[in-house]
């Protein structure tokens, strides 16, 4: 016993609130809004705080300088991911990218993602899908504007992004083989499963954990969801294999994600199984759809609430595009400086992944003089860092100007990866930085530019904008965002011209 006490005392762990025996700090956190609850709990103890969730040790990081230490300086120690029951079930035992351990599998999957699936050339190749889907959303908005009807922007965005990502992953065929809404429902369910810990994750090794999860129905829900998605993915893979065999000589204008992955498996470049393909599809659908949709919704909510910023963004977009009626990505986007600032400011206040994706330490480490043990869960609170008064002047205000470098707040911050600016990290940083960053960024700019160019936006009578958030791995707005679009170019817009 004296030996244990001595070891405990010599372990200089970061400060933190006292927990209870057995449950640790579990009773002090709210899993449905983990980023705010962690912030409230850890703020009195400083930017690095230890917690305990059952048998799991965790640290929470809430300052830009320590985020830099974790995600850049000591990235190699902090670049693992915890693999809890839900993640394991949904990712075929962590053989995807997002929940894979830092190992050869992760390196291969990441290489496939960046070189073969979402390289700049490939992102260009599915530009027509993007344009097509944006155009059809604009047509919906145009019709609503003509009949003075409101639009639920959350629904519109979700539908639009789902269509884009489903077409990128499966080509046009998914429509024929399965009911789209069922799959979308399953993807939503995956999102929810991914945030909640099972009893067996909280107290690993205890025999009753698995039993309680089973009794509570958690395991059967997980099993059903993963099996349903698995059979949907398998059906599509089989279809692709049959069609590709029939047409093996013919030139294909667009290869979807399954085509590319099947070809890589055939060429034996990587040791790719059907399970790898399905795990990759899961990542792309879960990570790619909601993040962009949520950001556009937050941006529009903030702009409606800040009419001056809305007017400035609209003037810029309308000046740059002129009366052409059509956004040209290459020509117009680089000139939309204020719009880019609006996007950064939105992500500062409402980062779609407020705690990034949790990390896990690969070995013992020292941060800020404190010891952090191997296999500690690490949460980097991007939401709290974006609102830290030490980094941001008037952090609670929506001020896109702060990014323009010509206001009282003169910070040229970017979120493009190899940065020094850890005050703004909506895409994470280091080895595990979001590999879909440029795809996501283009989508955000294209969508917002089109919305602001074509329409003036108002709130229906009796509606107010709220900023409540909903539980999930992505931070969504809880309540509907219903807006009234009004055509700006009364006589010039022809929806058939595209967006
Ligand atoms: C607004 C758009 C997006 C945001 C804000 C976002 C944010 C993030 C964040 C914070 C992470 C964790 C990074 C870390 O741990 O340091 C991440 C990881 C990831 N994202 Fe994104 N993301 C976006 C769009 C996308 C898109 C469009 C795709 C796919 C086409 C994608 C695919 C992924 C994948 C596969 C990972 C796991 C990377 C790894 O663990 O190595 N994301 N994303």
Describe this structure in words.
Pathway: Secondary metabolite biosynthesis; terpenoid biosynthesis. It is found in: Membrane. It is a single-pass membrane protein. The structure is a single chain. The protein is globular and about 70 Å long. With 499 residues, it is of the alpha+beta class. A 4-stranded mixed sheet has the order 1-2-7-4, with no helix packed on it. Helix content is 51%, strand content 8%. It has a single domain, classed as Cytochrome P450 (Cytochrome p450). A hairpin with a 2-residue loop joins strand 1 and strand 2. The N terminus and C terminus are likely disordered. The protein is built from 21 helices and 11 strands. Bound molecules: protoporphyrin IX containing FE. The site of protoporphyrin IX containing FE has 27 residues, from helix 16 and helix 21.
Brief account:
The chain is an alpha+beta fold and 499 residues long. It is built from 21 helices and eleven strands. The longest helix has 32 residues, at 274-305.
Low-confidence stretches: 1-7, 406-411, 495-499
**Arithmetic mean of pLDDT:** 89
Q: Globular, elongated, flat, extended or rod-shaped: what is the shape?
A: globular
Gyration radius, to the nearest Å?
23 Å
Q: Strand order, biggest sheet?
A: 1-2-7-4
| Total helical elements | 21
Bound molecules: protoporphyrin IX containing FE
Oligomer: single chain
Q: What share of the residues lie within helices?
A: 40-55%
Q: Report the top-level CATH class.
A: Mainly Alpha
Structural class: alpha+beta
Alpha carbon gap, first and last residue: 71 Å
